[in-house]
Amino acid sequence: MCAPSAHRAYLFAIILIPILGACSDPGLVCCAPPEEADLHLTGFEQRSGLGFTTHQEELAFLAAVDAESDRVRITEVGTSVQGRPIHLVRLAHPKPAPDDQIAMGPVLFVVGTQHGNEPAGREAALQFLRDLAFVEERLLPDALRTVTVLVIPTANPDGRFANTRRNADNVDINRDHLALVTPEARAIAQVIRDFRPDLVVDAHERPSATTPDLQLLWPRNLNVYGPVRDLSRALVEDHLFEQLPVSGRTVELYGPGPGPPGDENEGILRNAVGLRHALGLLVESSGQQGAQRRAAVHQETMNEVLEFFGNRSGEIVTAVTAAPGAKEAVGRDRSEPFYLFGADDNPSTPDQILNPPPCAYVLSTDQVTTLQPQLTLLGLQTEQDGSDVLLHMGQPMMTVVPLLVDAGARGPRVAGVPRVSEAECGAS
Question: Could you give the domains of the chain?
Answer without folding.
Answer: 29-320 (3.40.630.10), 358-427 (no CATH)
